[in-house]
C-alpha cells in the first residue's frame, strides 16, 4: 500500500486546488507544498489548468492566445470546459484513484471567477458544464491566495519582463480588483472547502501558512510531516 493510501485510509488521494489572481504566487506555493509532501513520503502530482494533459495543453495555447476573447465569453467558457474534461478524465481522476494526491494550479473556481463573475456568463451554463466535466469531483481543499492587486500585478510584470502580456494579463486594473472580490466571495461562500490565504508576505511565510492549513485539514499527514521535520 502506498504512503498516501496509508495516510488517507481510503485508498484515494487528496485533491487540493490553488486559486487566486494574477501573480498571487500559486505556482511558487504549489511547488513548495509538493516538496513538503514528498519529504513526508506522500505521492503527489502537480498539474495546472488550463492544461495538464496533452489535449488540454493545446486548448491552453488557444485560450491564452486570446481566441476565446474574440469568440465571446460563452465560447471561451466552452474552451476551458473542454480542456477540463480532458484533464479530469486523463490525469486527475486516475491519479486520485491510485491514491496519489493531486495539486492543481487553478480549477473550476477559475471559471466561476473569470468567466462567471467577470465575463457575466450565465451561472446555469457554468453549472451545467461543471456537471459534465467534473461531476461529483470537488477539491478536498481549495487554497485561495489573496494579495493586493497592485502587488500581484507588479510581481507578474517583473516576471514577464519584455514579453507581451497574454489574454488575461492584458486586462485592466479594475478587472483585477473585481477578480479579487470574486475570489473572496467564492471563499466566503464555501468555507468548508476553501481557505483564504494571506499571500502578502515572503514565499516561506506563505508556505508556512499553507502548511498549517494542510496539516489541520488532513490530520493523517501531521505525524509524518513532524517526523520528517525532526529527522
Ligand atoms: N483561466 C480562466 O479564465 N478560466 C479557467 O477556467 C481557468 C483559467 C482554469 C491562466 O494563466 C489564465 O487562464 C489565468 C486565468 C485563466 N489568467 N491569468 N492571468 P496562467 O496559468 O498563465 O497564469 P496564472 O494562473 O494567472 O498564474 P500567474 O500569473 O503565472 O501567477 P502565480 O502562479 O499566481 O504566481 P507565481 O508564478 O508563483 O509568482 C509570480 C511572480 O512572483 C514570480 O516571479 C515569483 O517568483 C514571484 N513571487 C511568488 N511568490 C512571491 C512572494 N511571496 N513574494 C515575492 N515574490 C513572489
Task: Report what the structure shows.
This protein is an alpha/beta fold. The chain has a domain at 3-49 and 98-122 and 134-218: Rossmann fold (3-Layer(aba) Sandwich), CATH 3.40.50.300. The chain has eleven helices and five strands. It has helices spanning 3-8, 26-39, 54-65, 67-71, 73-97, 108-118, 123-133, 149-160, 173-189, 203-217, 222-230; strands at 15-20, 44-48, 101-105, 141-146, 194-198. The protein has a five-stranded parallel sheet, sandwiched between helices. It starts with a helix and ends with a helix.
Give the SSE layout.
Elements: H1 3-8, E1 15-20, H2 26-39, E2 44-48, H3 54-65, H4 67-71, H5 73-97, E3 101-105, H6 108-118, H7 123-133, E4 141-146, H8 149-160, H9 173-189, E5 194-198, H10 203-217, H11 222-230
Parallel strand pairs: 1-3, 1-4, 2-3, 4-5
Helix pairs in contact: 2-10, 3-5, 5-7, 6-9
Bound molecules: ligand Z5A.
Radius of gyration from CA coordinates: 17 Å
Mean pLDDT value: 91
H and E string:
HEHEHHHEHHEHHEHH
The helix-and-strand class reads: alpha/beta
Bound molecules: ligand Z5A
Shape: globular
The tally of strands reads 5
List the main descriptive attributes of the protein structure presented here:
12% strand; 231 residues; globular; disordered N terminus; Rossmann fold; 11 helices; five-stranded parallel β-sheet; alpha/beta; binds ligand Z5A; 5 strands
Short note summarizing the structure:
It is built from eleven helices and five strands, in the order αβαβαααβααβααβαα. With 231 residues, it is an alpha/beta fold.
Amino acid at each position: 500500500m502506498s504512503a498516501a493510501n496509508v495516510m488517507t485510509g481510503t485508498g484515494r488521494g487528496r485533491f487540493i486546488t490553488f486559486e487566486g489572481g494574477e501573480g498571487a504566487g500559486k505556482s511558487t506555493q504549489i511547488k513548495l507544498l509538493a516538496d513538503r509532501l514528498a519529504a513526508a513520503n506522500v505521492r503527489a502530482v502537480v498539474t495546472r489548468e488550463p492544461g495538464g494533459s496533452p489535449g488540454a495543453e493545446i486548448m491552453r495555447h488557444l485560450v491564452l492566445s486570446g481566441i476565446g476573447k474574440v469568440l465571446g465569453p460563452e465560447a471561451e467558457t466552452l474552451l476551458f470546459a473542454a480542456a477540463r474534461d480532458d484533464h479530469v478524465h486523463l490525469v486527475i481522476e486516475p491519479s486520485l484513484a491510485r491514491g496519489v494526491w493531486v495539486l492543481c494550479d487553478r480549477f473550476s473556481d477559475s471559471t466561476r471567477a473569470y468567466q462567471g463573475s467577470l465575463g457575466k456568463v450565465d451561472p446555469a451554463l457554468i453549472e451545467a458544464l461543471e456537471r459534465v466535466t467534473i461531476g461529483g469531483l470537488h477539491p478536498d481543499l481549495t487554497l485561495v491566495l489573496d494579495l493586493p492587486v497592485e502587488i500581484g500585478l507588479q510581481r507578474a510584470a517583473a516576471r514577464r519582463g519584455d514579453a507581451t502580456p497574454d489574454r488575461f494579463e492584458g486586462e485592466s486594473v479594475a478587472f483585477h480588483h473585481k477578480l479579487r472580490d470574486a475570489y473572496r466571495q467564492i471563499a466566503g461562500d464555501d468555507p468548508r472547502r476553501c481557505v483564504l490565504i494571506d499571500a502578502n508576505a515572503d514565499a516561506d511565510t506563505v508556505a508556512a501558512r499553507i502548511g498549517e492549513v494542510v496539516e489541520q485539514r488532513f490530520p493523517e499527514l501531521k505525524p509524518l510531516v513532524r517526523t520528517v521535520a525532526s529527522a
